Each structure stands twice: as C-alpha cells, then as structure tokens.
C-alpha cells in the first residue's frame, strides 16, 4: 500500500466527502432541480430537444446526460462530442465558436441548452450560452469554482457548487443531471 507517512486518511476522507454535502442539503438546489425537471417536461411535450455541451469531462457528462434523457426519460437530447463535428467546426469557425455554431446548425425553436463547465469560463461553452440566449432558448448551467463565473450569469436555471476540486464538481454535476432524469421518469429504480 502506497501511503504518505503521517496522513490520517479517515480525516482526509471526512474532509473530502464534506464537499458533497451541498448536493443533498440545499433548498436552492432542490428548486433548481424542480425547475429543470419542469423545463425537460416542457421540451418533451413540445417535441423539442435538450442540446448539451461541455469540454473534457464535462463533455462526457453531457453525453451521459443526453443518452439518459433520451432513453430513460424520453426527452430527445443530443450532444456534440463527435470528433469529426468538433474538428470541422473548430477549423472553420475557431475553437471558441464551434459549440455555438453547432447549436446554430442543430437548434430549433423550443429547444433548450444544457451547458457544463467546472470553471464556467470555457469560451466555447460561454459562447454557446450567449447564442442560446440570443435565440431565446432556455439555458441550464452546471458550474463550480467561482460564483460569479460568466456561464452562470447567462443561465436561466443554474447549478453551482462552491468548490475548486474538479473531480468533486464533476461528480456533483453528474449527480444533479441524472437526478433530473429520474425526476422526469418519476422514480429512482426502474428497468432500463
């Protein structure tokens, strides 16, 4: 076992998991979860879609969310993680603009944007939020680190975790996103 001498791992783990407490102990989070559920149901009723995006691990979270919303919750959802699409749009429009241009090409009236960025400063994600707002699309944001990040300022429904621990923030984003899937389904346990 590789361990740092003198480290009390029980205390370290207590401190680490304390960072997850806001997931289950916040009325503000509950209100946002309910609002996002209501938005997802409205998108479903109008036969529109959730367009999701992020970079790195946030792109993976978006992709997981898009699959679960589509398959389990029956809310059509898509993400833009295809390497061909990313490299084509980044080459033609610049990396900071690729996601906004994907939203432009794929978005329709009634769609909603779900955008994920730990820092809330990723230019490609922020520009996608700006584009969505210009098109009057509702914007749902998942961010961390700084409460005054630019992405959060553009959101209609915001999920924020006051932490700079990337893995913690990303895991909480995944918990919140999949919680809403289960809220739309109406139960936590079901056959998939």
From TrEMBL:
Which top-rank group of organisms is this from? Bacteria
Q: Lineage of this protein's species? A: Bacteria, Pseudomonadati, Pseudomonadota, Gammaproteobacteria, Nevskiales
What's the name of the protein? Phosphoheptose isomerase
- What organism is listed for this UniProt entry? Solimonas aquatica
Which Pfam family is one of those matched by this entry? SIS_2
Q: Which UniProt keywords apply?
A: Isomerase
Q: Which residues form the SIS domain?
A: 39-190
Task: List this protein's GO terms for biological process.
Answer: carbohydrate derivative metabolic process
Q: Which GO terms describe its molecular function?
A: carbohydrate derivative binding; isomerase activity
Q: Which PROSITE patterns match?
A: SIS
């Amino acid at each position: 076992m590789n361990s740092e001498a003198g480290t009390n791992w029980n205390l370290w783990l207590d401190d680490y998991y304390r960072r997850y407490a806001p997931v289950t102990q916040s009325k503000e989070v509950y209100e946002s979860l309910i609002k996002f559920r209501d938005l997802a149901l409205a998108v479903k009723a109008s036969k529109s879609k959730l367009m999701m995006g992020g970079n790195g691990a946030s792109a993976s979270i978006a992709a997981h969310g898009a699959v679960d919303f589509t398959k389990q919750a029956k809310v059509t959802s898509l993400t833009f993680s295809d390497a061909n699409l990313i490299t084509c749009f980044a080459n033609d429009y610049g990396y900071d603009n690729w996601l906004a241009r994907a939203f432009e090409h794929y978005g329709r009236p009634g769609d909603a944007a779900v955008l994920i960025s730990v820092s809330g400063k990723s230019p490609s994600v922020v520009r996608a939020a700006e584009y969505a707002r210009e098109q009057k699309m509702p914007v749902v944001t998942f961010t961390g680190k700084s409460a005054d990040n630019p992405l959060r300022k553009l959101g209609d429904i915001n999920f924020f975790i006051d932490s700079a621990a990337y893995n913690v923030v990303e895991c909480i984003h995944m918990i919140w996103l999949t919680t809403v899937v289960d809220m739309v389904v109406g139960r936590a346990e079901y056959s998939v």
